[in-house]
Structures are given as structure tokens and as C-alpha cells.
Here is the input.
Amino acid sequence: MGEYAGLGEVAGKRVLVRSDLNVPLQDGRITDDGRIRASVPTIKALADAGARVVVTAHLGRPDGALDPAYSLAPVAARLGELLGAPVVFATDTVGESAKQTVAGLADGQVALLENVRFNAGETAKDDAVRGAFAAQLASLADAFVSDGFGVVHRKQASVYDVAQLLPHAMGGLVAAEIDVLRRLTDTPERPYAVVLGGSKVSDKLGVIDNLLGKANTLLIGGGMVFTFLKAQGHEVGRSLLEEDQIPAVLEYLERARANGVRIVLPTDIVVADAFGDEASARVVPADQIPADALGLDIGPSSGAAFAVVIEQARTVFWNGPMGVFEQPAFAAGTKAVAEALTKVQGLSVVGGGDSAAAVRALGFSDEQFGHISTGGGASLEYLEGKELPGITVLEG
Here is the structure.
């Protein structure tokens, strides 16, 4: 148990772990601790092996300035509860508090440094500035474990640069995420269905582009569907629309036909007179959206049709809600997709971000799905075929 992922004996060593603890907070309270829970196994394995574990992570986008609203203090408390042992919290990242906290650690103890993004060097575009900050972080440790999957697509000091300064290893969470993504891209069991939602087509262009050669079926929902409907010549009213993406969408529809990939669009839509107007919610055919209405979810027939395709698939990747799931009147489409994913006889993957938040908000448990990714952006970039700097640096 003393060795971890090729680092050799870790007992007595200071091991810097980059975790993803970027959880939603409301009035200082954590509303979804999924990412903290996902980070526990790697931290616990190192602590159990006698390492002096120094966790670094970010919360929100404080833009390199100290902002109490983005303090990781509540996260330290929750992490301690989940570990069943107190987590010492340093009130800075590389300053006096961090140095004293790390110096005071005994074997098997865990410390959490304050929000790494309070330091401008973390996200600096200048390699020298980022490298200087990484050197300060590296001085606190003897080895580095990269376990923050939600940030491996970022070339940042605590993700990329510090790995070049210390003996390093991939954490269990990152290894599991990469394993699942390889199963989705290299040798997916078929039929392979991909469900894409969320607000914008432009966010998903690269994924659609890459998956047109891999998936058997693409199911399109969420705000992005209205650009597809408009591309087919339908009225979309005041629904979310990216006019400039219509040529790209037309090209994808044509390529899908040529490649034998089925693109499934909703046949009905839940509309309202205004955003959040549950009172006026009604179902209309997808090709008959009133000019003054706003589409806010896929309709019940579409939800049922999507569910049939998903349940018959052996591999399913889902990223992006089908509608404004935070409001009951516009949550049914997302719930239908989530429910169908729990019945997949094969690999079902919820691709992080809003999709992960949606399944938990709608009352599903993580165990009902094959895998819930902790990093929406990183998952999408991998599926686009892009290199992830935080992975490349570990393999180099």
C-alpha cells in the first residue's frame, strides 16, 4: 500500500494533489458535493499509504484576486467529513499559512490550500509567470498527483507546469475518466447513441464533427435544437437561435446522411410566452412553433422517442440538458433522457457539467449510471479529438 501509481514509496512524502473541488455554493453552503466525493478515493489512498497530502484546487473564477465568496473553507470542512478525519485549511496557496500548514503535517494527514485561482500566476498566459507560480507550489511538495479531471484541458500552473517540476502520477479519478472516454472513442460497443443538449450549437460543433464518424445516432435537444429546426426551414419563434451556425448545421445534416448516421430531432416542443413562464407552458409540433413563443424543452413525444433509442443502445454519451430543467414545467425532457440512461444494458455516460447537476437535481443517484463525468469541458474536448495538456504532460 505504500506505493501509489508509480511514485514509489509515498510514506512520509509531501504529495501535492490537484483535485477538482469546484462545487456550487449558495450563501456559503455547498449545494452539490459530487466533485468532492469523487476526489476522496485518491486523497484517502495516499493518506492511508502514509503520505502527507497537500490538496490544491480552485473554486469559480476570482480572476487572480482574493475574494472571500470563492474561499475553499466550506470545502475543507466537507472534505474532512467525507474522509472521516480533519482537513487542515491553509488561508493562502503559497504564502506563510501554506508553508506552516504543510510543515506541520504528520504522515497520513491532509491539508487543503486556499483557492489556487486567487493567484494570477495560475491562469497566466505568459509561460514564465505561470512557471514561477508553479515553482512556488512545487516547493511545498516532493511529488505531484493530477486528479482534477475537470481542469486537465487547461494549461494552468497547478495542472500543467507543476507536473514538469515534480515526480508525477495520474490520480485514480483522472485514470477512470480517461478510460471511459477511450471506450467512447476507440472501440464503442454498438449501437452507439450520443445525446447532445444545452443552449448553444457552437459549444458542441467540434463534438458533432468528430462523432459523425463514430456514433450510430445523434439525438439533439436543448436550446441548440432551434438552430437545427431553423436550418430545416421551420419557424422557431423567439427561441434561442444561432443564425451564424445554420450553414454548419446544414453541412452536418448532409454529412450524417452520407455517413449513415441518424440525427434525431424533437417532433414536439414545450413552449411558453416568456422565459420561466410556467403558466403558459404548452406543447406544440416542432414545425409549428408560434412566432411569439419561446421553446424551453423537448415535448413528451420526443422524450419518449429519445428514450427508445437510448434504451436500445449499448453505449450512450449524454452532454447537455434537454430544456430548462431547473423549472418543473420544462424538466420532463431531461428527466426522460436521464431515466432512459439508467436502463442502458451497456455503458451509460453522463458528460459532466449541467447534465450531472440535472440528474442529481431531478432525484437520480450517481449509482444509477455507468459513469458521471466530473468534467464537462474536458470530456467534450477529448471527444472532439483535442489534446488535453494536463494529460499530455503526465504521459511525456
Remarks:
- The radius of gyration is 22 Å.
